[in-house]
């Protein structure tokens, strides 16, 4: 019992000491902070007008300045806005008109191009038909030339057949027929004209071969006499005793052939 009481007394003593120390510290802190709080209050009182002045001179003033600057701009914009919109509308209308005109020009050019293509196609068709007709005309001309050359050769062969040996009435020269259908006189090659049988018999072997080749007479393997016979036969040379008996008939045949060719050319096609 005696030991428990001193312990309780010690605990109470410590509590009282702690409370006293806490009060002393609180009092000291409050005493130390009192000048700071007083200074802060004074500073706040001094900053109040400054803050109000700043707010008044910054926010309000700048707001009014901005409004003052924006007001003329707004008034100017309000005045010129209809003009700007009108100008934009006018420019837009001009642009639309230009685009429409350009589109019309494109349509016209496309139409012209289409017509040009049609015209070019028609021209090509006409050219093709013309070329075909020219080809037919050329073929007809070649056929006609062949008939004419055949007629020239046949007429001279018939004429020569009535000249006997050619001394009284000389033979007519028969031209060479080229591969293209044109004619070439033997004199162009320097060959003597076959006016009579004497000229034929006196041909050199080279001249004889030129005549045979020019007339297209096959003479390979033939001797000179046989070659001369072939040449006489081609140009229409006949013995004198046979010439007079056939002259009238041959000329009549020539006249009939000419008439048939003139009036019925399709028979020679």
Describe this protein with a few key phrases.
single chain; 269 residues; mainly alpha; 2 strands; transmembrane helix; transmembrane; membrane
Provide structural commentary:
The chain has a domain of 130 residues. It contains 5 helices and 2 strands, in the order αββαααα. The chain has a two-stranded antiparallel sheet with strand order 1-2.
Task: Summarize the topology.
Elements: H1 4-161, E1 176-177, E2 183-184, H2 197-201, H3 205-214, H4 224-235, H5 240-263
Antiparallel strand pairs: 1-2
Helix pairs in contact: 1-5, 3-4
What's the end-to-end separation, in Å? 172 Å
Can you tell me the overall shape? rod-shaped
CA-based gyration radius: 69 Å
- Read across the widest sheet, the strand sequence of neighbours is 1-2
**Uncertain stretches of 5 or more adjacent residues:** 240-245
Number of strands: 2
Considering DSSP H and I runs of 4 or more, what fraction of the residues is helical?
over 70%
User: Averaged pLDDT, please?
Assistant: 79
How many DSSP H or I helices? Answer: 5
Q: Structural class, from secondary structure content? A: mainly alpha
Order of helices and strands: HEEHHHH
> What fraction of the residues are assigned to beta strands by DSSP?
under 5%
Organism: Pisolithus microcarpus 441
Keywords: Membrane, Transmembrane, Transmembrane helix
Family: Belongs to the UPF0612 family.
Protein name: Mug135-like C-terminal domain-containing protein
Question: What's the quick description here?
Answer:
The chain has 269 residues and is an all-alpha fold. It has five helices and two strands.
